[in-house]
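ingest -> validate -> predict -> emit
validate: passed (alphabet ok, no gaps, 475 aa)
predict: started
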Amino acid sequence: MTNRVRTIFANMSWLMVSQIITSICAFVWTILMARYLGPSDYGIFGTAVSFTVLFSVLSDFGVTTYIVRSISIDLEHEDKYLNNAISLKLFLSLLYLSAVTIALLLLGWDNYVVLICLLFAIESLIKSFQFAFCSSFQAHELMKYQAISNIILNVLTLTFIVIVSFTKFGLLGITFAYIFANIVGLIYTVLVINNKIIKPRFSFDLSFYKKLILAGIPFALTGIFYTIYYSIDIVMITHFTSTYFTGLYNSAYKLINVLTLFYSIYSSVIFPVMSKLFVDEKDMLHFSFVKSIKYLSLVTIPIAVFTFFYGYDIINIYGSEYAEAGAVLKILIWTVCFLFVNGACSLILNASHKEYSVTKIYSMAAIFNVILNLILIPKYSVFGASIATVLSEILILLLQFYMVSKINQLPDRHFVFDVLRIFFASGVLAFVLYFLNLNMWVAMPVSMVVYFAVIILIRTVDPDDKLIIKQIIGR
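emit:
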């Protein structure tokens, strides 16, 4: 257990450093872009990103997730998995670009919007190839190199956006900033894999293509419904209202995305580990799952409480043009709590070869979300979309916990008491924030002190947690 925990947290340390840098960069360029573009053009940006993401599953078809799991437990055949996956993605990329182009023509959007969407489709393809190559880093648990790749990508993105903000290139310049940064990130990833792990090359094994596609179908279906669920709202807001309201919604959503990047790091480290534990150590798989939910909840719930009280103050960083988005942020922030727990449930189901269950859950959630958006957006605009997102996350939580119980991995009574302690500490924090009514910048350190003081006093940290901490620091 000691070596496993140290490996996990060594990887998480690298990715955490990467995430801190990434979050700072994303935070800065989000504010910079929103101020530079204004709500309407920022709305076009959000629409383009969300629209191209809706079709992104066609460029991968679940292959990347499948080969991460496969290489993790079968390193001897890594070259076969990776080389065929990369060549297969060339053909899938053509399918992706064709689908995006046809859909844009059918929608009849403005030529400028169409151009931005097509450029972001290219950016999405570059990113897709980089994710595929990073599967080797994840499978070998060498997250150091993925962390460095993330740092390069995000620092360059920020640098290019800063440069563009001093020009009159507008949204077009911002779009090319994303593309150029991703090209550099891809080049670095390929060079490192070539020198440290495996020399990638194109392999065209048609029979193996069939295996990859069939094995990737459940992940692809989950991806389809997942992207519909998380991206369709912005597209629908644009369709039913205007790019101005899309810009308001996107400004709040981007702040949420900065937080969810932490979960991306966690899943990148934990998924290959869970896949191995499913084969070798079922008890450790359950332990990893329960601790994942505990630690993720320990962080996200107080953040949601703080944002609920200071949503308008936080959104003001964009400028007075975005003031209405404060109420949207106060609603959307609760999705972070559910999203992190739901993500942990998806990880254990995927690692336990129950990917079809995850697919079914997200298909129901996507349909539920689309129906709610159709009802709520025309009447309540961005607020309706926010409520639909929160309710959909609650549905996913209920369905996933049901499926987790079917594989006998449901957390025990001890975990329930841990969650109740976290809720109690967060409730105390809410009480303090409500009655003190502090300035936001003063409230931040006060909140951390109050919350963690309560966490310690009510003994939320158990002996297992202490053992993990000791192993991380090598004692």
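Residues 57 and 224 are 6 Å apart (CA to CA).
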